[in-house]
Amino acid sequence: MESLETLLSVLRQNHLKITPQRRLILEILVDDASHPTVDQVYQQVITVMPNVSRTTVYNTLHELVALGVLIEVQDMGAGGGRYDTNASQHHHLLCTHCHTLLDIERDFPELELTPVEACGYRIARHQVTFYGVCPCCQQALASQEESI
Amino acid sequence: MESLETLLSVLRQNHLKITPQRRLILEILVDDASHPTVDQVYQQVITVMPNVSRTTVYNTLHELVALGVLIEVQDMGAGGGRYDTNASQHHHLLCTHCHTLLDIERDFPELELTPVEACGYRIARHQVTFYGVCPCCQQALASQEESI
DNA sequence: GTTTATGCAAATCATTTGCATACGT
DNA sequence: ACGTATGCAAATGATTTGCATAAAC
Fold this sequence. Notes:
two-stranded antiparallel ribbon; 5 strands; Dna Ligase, domain 1; DNA-binding; 148 residues; 18% strand; Arc Repressor Mutant, subunit A; 6 helices
């Protein structure tokens, strides 16, 4: 996880202005490891600065993705993309029912494509997503079946 | 890849009616391994049956996903989900610039989470996505830098 | 002082919903 | 005949865009 100072210095290096809104959004992202959606970030933002617009949240998140310090995570089934400040190589475990997303901090260095498989692509990284049902939803599904 | 007959029999087994629209959508999916978007399927559909509505395409794709014969594929950056008839275990190689998506037919059976890592999740499958830049976009990016 | 960011409102794009009609079984 | 699927139009929801004002450098 990046520190707030690291993120701020990335902004400075790229000649982006450090506004109170951006600083707040960065603080939220650093503190929130739960892969928040744009709206979840926005809701946290307006509890502190009620006048910040969604546009600013979108702008800032897009800039951070372009700078490579934020990663966009896909969550099919739940509307809207999610964001992850953890730019280090890590992987995901997704509950296909409630869409809870856990980080898997282990690396899988053995995952390499052969040159033939890579088809000339210059490969930058890889991401593993495990799909399953979390303990909560296992219970919910079990009791659902009982009631049939 | 499933054959058209296999898909039709899945529909029959689930008491879904075989309408001309559904049959056409299935034919298109079987023939198109390029992970089409909903809209790309729709565009192909209306070249043959111009009156088919987007609603019907959405309905059919959702039903096929529910039946497990279609898989929804993530593609961040390009608007709209994409669909993959190849229900077998396989992985993806995505160009982060043009969003071309290739199938990697190799399996990675060594990818297993320890019980501790799985946190009680009942894991059903895993999916590896390699991110990189395709040969086309490598050229485009290189000539872009020259012109600076 | 210059450049960039913000916030608003309107526009856009993908997807969903409600419902009357048409069709497959 | 029955029940489901279709197609339309309208609703929704997320994201993007244009632009005048405000703020950071």
